[in-house]
Amino acid sequence: MRSNHFLNMLLMGTAFFVGSLYGDNTFAAGAVVVPSVTTKSALISADAFGDFLSNNFPGGFDPNRGYESDLLGGWKARADGSVIPRQLLIQTDPYGPYNTGCGLAVNTGSTYTQQNPVSEGNPWSGAPGVVNVGGFDTVANCTLYGNTRARLILDVKGYTPPATYTNSTGYSSVAQGQNRLHIGGPVVFDTAHYTYTATASYRDEHGNNIVVLQDVPVTSVSSQNGAWNVMFASGFTHTNQGGVITFSAKSNGHNPLIGDHAAVHLAAPLTEAQASQIHPNMYITTNSNSPLIAPGIGNGDGLPTRRLFAGYVSDAPKAGDTAIHVIEWDVPGGGTGANGQTPSTEAEMLDHDYSNYGKPVVFLGGGAAGSQFAHNWFAQIDGNQYGDQAGSLIHQITPLEIDLNVINPGSIKPHSIFYSGINMNAGNQPDRLTDASHELFLGGVIKHHLMLNGGPGNWDIDGDGVYVPVAGASGINPSTVGQTSQEWDQPVRGLNTMRTVLWDEFIGSSDPRNWGWKEAVVHFGTTVDGPAQVTGQPGGSKQADLEWNYAGQYGGLSICGYAHNCGLTVHGDGSTAITGQATFSQQTTFSGQTAFSNQANFSNQAIFSGQTIFNGTAFLSGGAGLGNGQNFIFWPRQKGVPAAMMQGTDPGTVLLTTNAGSPGHLEAGQITVSGDLQGTNGSNRVSGLHADGNGNWSTTVNTPGGGALAQASYVLAWLPTANETDGAHLWCSDCVVNHVQGAEVYWHAHAGLWTDSQNNTLTR
Fold first, then answer.
1. Which whole-number Å values give the CA distances from 724 to 465, 748, 763, in the listed order?
2. What is the tens place of the pLDDT at every residue in 310-355?
3. Is the pTM of this model over 0.85?
4. Helix (H, G, I), strand (E, B) or coil at 536
5. What is the pLDDT of residues 434-485, one digit of tens each?
6. Residue 383, by phi and psi: left (phi above 0), alpha (psi -120 to 50) or beta?
7. In degrees rounded to 5, what are phi and psi of residue 469?
8. What is d(CA 135, CA 345) in angstroms, rounded to the nearest whole number?
């Protein structure tokens, strides 16, 4: 009836498995408690037809799974020893959050626990038990795992290496060059379970040991008249000197012979309870470090380098044994792979990173492992099932798919279901985790590591300060004039939030020929405060940004204030346009054509090596240098009028003309000249004025062909009288002084008349 109780338990309620289920255990509905762990194989239950289901493996048991594995799911032995799979159905109805809050509980560890991890409080504590449970949840499959304690932690007395065979009776019957050695000693070979290597040596006349063979593979061993013929994979030199042959054995994968492997010698004999928990292939880990691995930080995980010797138990010990045999010792994942290594019990070799016992110990089972997984899924693809004679039509592998299917939605109010999908939380002690710890790792070589396929208005990533909406599904159009591509947020003192946003703006076009990408302006800039949003222009207070294709500048990039006022644009051809007031406070070099369409201020040196156009006002408070052959062009206010040009003709010479070739004109309220003021009519004849620094002017004496200062000439009848200042002087061409026609005349403001230099009345 035990099997029927077990079947009813599976069909009626929650099943709890601890350790293993064996035929001599007592089954009860609701929960199963195993009083002890044994090593025998027994029946589990019966199927619906009353046939017993067994975990018996052909040959007694499955050595890879061990005695503590029970095969569920309807394995039924046929007469020929083959098995047929059956379905295992677990029908549950969890009703409470404490010990029956999940349909199937999988708890890792050898200690039974009544409370499953979905539970958070004890109902018998009253109202706190209701509050502390967090929520009245029921779970289909609840898994409890963690850093479970090793099944056994045993004190160690010492270690011995794998057994070796030594014969020192000397060589005899050696066939030169045939790679064969005849040994007459009591050596036991087990070629069914071991692979052998040999080392041969002899001593010369000085007593020195000379190695002839070093770890040479032994290809065959045969018995002959009480001795052994050994064939080697390579030759050795024949000698008549006495020597030693050392054979070492390595298991070739079969069940090992007891006593021939490495061993850990315990400080105390094993009890019956301890011995019953030790099985072949069980993990066994020492707290002794390998001297061949240097300390440090491990393989990118931030943990100390794991240098602990470990291995697999070779056979099950008995109560009272003081040794546990191990196939070989090495460091998992980082060892040398060489056989014959032996852990040390010396204090300086003991572990202080993962444990600190201060004495040699070994860990067996459970916590003897280096890591623990709650779920480890494997998908196995058999290439033999593909091809012309395919045995399988499965070409799609999906390890996990989680779908939400809402049936009869008409009875559900909108926004009534919270669907949280897959949730990961690293725990409440982040400083205890290494910096290399992570919640999600996508590895391997595959074309796509992460694919997101959301709908309009969704977030592809809604992170802690990083937002990526589903841009492709929404898009920008006449009805959606803005669309965020990505956003990064950063709080400032908790008072404001700086939001860096990459977004697109739909500007539209009345011409269908320009529909498409020409209707969009790309923005990348910042805004202050406001919520992150999928569609529409970013809210908050927009700051400066970069804009592509602003105002039809296709292929260009603009720098704009408040995400609207663009002052500097680099066109697709590389030219630069400044549309707002520009101030250059440091030396500035313009190597191409430069156009300033508004006011430009140069407070330091400005160098223009290309054509420069000031459509607005230019303030040059520093220096302005023009390249060879370049001109300053001053455009008039009226269209169609020649523009004044300033150009350098010779070193130290500036020519003011117009772009039409006519002379230029200079008008100024005041002109200050620090040197001589010189003029020319286009020939080599130069006229000049010299300022002596004391308020006096004189003509320059080195003027060729001239040098006098000529004044304006008038006839007496037309001498000006309206706006003259006292002391002004002119030349009167028809005035007569001392019977000579032509005289210099002076204006007397108080009398309102012109006189000669002697204040005489002018006459003709």
1. 78, 9, 20
2. 999 988 899 999 999 998 999 999 899 988 899 999 999 999 999 9
3. no
4. coil
5. 988 999 999 999 999 999 998 888 999 999 899 999 987 778 899 889 999 9
6. alpha
7. -80, 170
8. 52
